[in-house]
Design goal:
Length: 293
């Protein structure tokens, strides 16, 4: 896979980009009807006219609304991924951050691991029940900003590895300047990506956080695109100025038709998270399992 979801950034700006989007569509017979799925109405200015995923890259959306994962194969699950420097995302230099990763839930730490400084490879083994992994992954590295990652659905199998790009404060400042954004240090930042059924990015998706669609920075690949009003093919976005505390983040897109004849902006994915100025809240918005999320 060559397309990855994005993530990253705390009390300053775009901190760590990640994908950790263990994807794959299950066979559970959930309600696949789109008629009852939430609709974004009224539509915000600059809404896309094309269907979600439309563009030069193929996308897979058939699992939307029927996206339960198969039961875990055993009582333990390995969460694999790569942790890399924002300035060397494809590992041309062969030297990556020495990062520590911790998987935890509301009760305790479930597993820890350290990444390989040669290629950034990391794998965390966690105990799971029938629901799979529903916790958070915390990543820290010297000189880099901390990130807490969460996926919008339970993880029960490993079909797509997670990708993470860590940044230093100098990288944060450079991205903020390029996007002409001022960040309130007393507010949190959320970063993430909208994914299709195979873990690739969704284009033409709108992000709503809380009750607002304002203040979302979309990305074209790894380049901030402040002129965009919806996702590009990478599916990446970032939100600055988020109040600390519980937050719901949603993605909406058109599901049928094309151009001006496309249908309404329909819920693609939803996640509930806790945000803080002490770390970046990084999320992967996967296709919803049923009608509501």
């Amino acid at each position: 896979m060559t397309r990855h979801g994005m993530i990253g950034s705390p009390s300053h700006w775009l901190v760590a980009l990640a994908a950790l989007a263990w994807a794959g569509c299950g066979d559970d017979d959930d309600d696949t009807s789109q008629d009852e799925a939430p609709i974004l109405d009224p539509e915000p200015p600059g809404s896309p006219s094309e269907v979600v995923g439309a563009g030069s890259v193929d996308f897979e959306i058939s699992c939307l609304g029927d996206n339960s994962q198969p039961d875990p194969n055993g009582t333990n699950l390995t969460l694999p991924g790569w942790i890399r420097d924002w300035n060397d995302p494809t590992n041309d230099g062969g030297v990556q951050p020495e990062a520590d990763a911790e998987a935890y839930d509301e009760v305790s730490t479930l597993g820890t691991s350290s990444s390989d400084i040669g290629n950034g490879r990391v794998a965390i083994s966690v105990p799971v029940e029938e629901t799979g992994f529903v916790g958070t992954v915390r990543v820290t590295a010297d000189d880099y900003l901390e990130q807490h990652f969460r996926v919008s659905r339970p993880v029960t199998t490993t079909k797509t590895a997670g990708w993470m790009w860590l940044v230093r404060q100098s990288d944060v400042d450079a991205v903020a300047a390029e996007a002409d954004i001022e960040v309130d240090p007393d507010r949190a930042i959320v970063v993430g990506a909208v994914h299709d059924c195979l873990g690739f990015g969704y284009s033409n998706a709108i992000i709503r956080w809380g009750d607002s669609t304002d203040g979302v920075l979309y990305f074209d690949g790894f380049t901030p695109a402040p002129e965009r009003t919806f996702t590009a093919e990478s599916g990446r976005f970032a939100i600055a100025g988020v109040p600390e505390g519980p937050l719901t983040v949603e993605a909406y897109g058109r599901l049928d038709g094309s151009g001006q004849s496309a249908g309404p902006l329909t819920l693609l994915g939803r996640i509930d998270i806790e945000v803080s100025t002490s770390y970046v809240s990084a999320i992967a918005l996967e296709p919803r399992v049923g009608v509501e999320r």
